[in-house]
Amino acid sequence: MNEIQTRPPQGHIEVRNFSLSYDSIEGPVQAVTDTQIHVKPGEFVSIVGPSGCGKSTLLNAVAGFLKPTTGIVTVDGERVNGPSAERGMVFQQYSLFPWKTVRENVEFGLKMRGMARSQRERAARTLLGLAGLEAFEKHYPEKLSGGMKQRVGIVRALATGPKVLLLDEPFGALDAQTRVIMQQILTNMWQRLKISVLFVTHDIDEAIFLSDRVYCMTARPGSIKAEIPIPLERPRQQSMMMSSEFLALRRGLMSLIREESLKAMGGEINDMGMQGLNIELHGHSLADVI
Amino acid sequence: MSATTAISEAGPVPATTPSATPPSIGTLALRWYRLNQSRLRAIAIGIISLLAFLLVWHLLTTYRVVFFVRFTNVPSPVAVYASFTKAMHDPKFLLHVVLSCRRIFIGFSLAAIVGVPLGLIMGRFRLVHEIVFPVAEVLRPIPAIAWVPMAIMLWPTNEQSIVFITFIGAFFPILLNTLHGMSLVDPVLVRAAQCLGARERSIFREVYFPASLPHIFTGLTVGMGVAWVSLIAAEMISGQYGIGYFTWEAYSLVQYADIALGMIAIGVLGLGSSLLIRGAGQLVMPWRLK
Q: What is the spatial distance between Cα B269 and Cα B277, in angstroms, rounded to a whole number?
């Protein structure tokens, strides 16, 4: 743990001139177009947007699972060329290995690195202890609740000491109460480890509560519609979610996303909805709303 | 800080001890009965149903019922039991059983040794799949019994051709189920392994193989069933020993009780080998235990 805590700040993510398209029978489909984002070392950045806008595509490109059609993804100046343990990832479906116990799941990355069994067992126990999961080390994931599964997922991703942590709607499948607790746990871990985080979600409250900065994406083909700094002080408390500052941020982000969601729906609904929205937003810019 | 919430949500809540004094034998027995009620019920009904089967068999044969089917020459349970006790002291009968088991063991083991790795490799490498699959699809529908003449031509000894037919019977279910298991491996688990630093070989060993194990064992169970079907057919046609040969010989020699004895022996041996595979499956896949 000490080794992780005291290392120099790193994990600078840069995505430049990024676009990604894939082939279909009707020709190439543009999923993400002309996108620039960055995450500074130790920063917590979220991406929000209507469903299908390509925010997960973007995250998967940073993880190295997808190759950009144009543009470049770098971490600390090094080009991303495929998945690596330097970029830890947490998935919405937990994706724990069902045939491994909780501890074996956490050990996995260390095992891949070739660490000796006794050493990685000790490391995994320490990490599980921090997440309040030591009592469950010998359980198989199936026996755990959703919140516990995802805590194991986060601990597993952090076990190898990655430079950045990528999370793809990690709390999307959890109930509201567990979700709030998980957000607290994540911010606590993030503050302790000083790791860069790129977080994809469609939950606006979650994005504001967790982040230093929020990118809002347009409907498909996705690109960055707005970049919103979140000046709320840290550590964040649940009570802040009722503050006028929070609510103003929420309102602004909400209208941005609603606009895009309606665009994504298309057709007549689109026209009617847009008229309604135009009236509502008429003469206002995002800054005015905030 | 959410440390307290985290731990309470983790929930290593000690079970409230019911009382200081240990419960009496009576209450313990009652509790055990309640917990195992459905299983006990299944066992009781199973025993009753087997006894009813014996009773119906006994009545049909004692009264030599002729009603569409003729029970005139069918041996009674008592007669079969008599021939069973006689057979138990007959080294020749035991030799039949041992030889059949040996053929199953060799044929089935070879099918598993070839079928499982081939299925895994076909599932991982498309070229191998494209080459092997069409051939497998053409050969698969051919029942093992249709292989008998070909097997006799192919192999120098009778023993080898019978083992070969057993192998053929077990091989295709094992191969196809392994392949099916490989095709169902969750790609998210593969990605999770990749961004924990796993390379191709580790992914194969740590993800594809264990993820396919449930289907591999389905294949082994089905394969074992087909192996017995194929073995008995082969023994009836070309054998000199074996439980299938014993049953057929009993018919030729008008030993009616031995026909039923042979059939029951086949049933019991088949059931026993299925149970062995199921037990092995539970040993290998502890995470699937309920």
A: 13
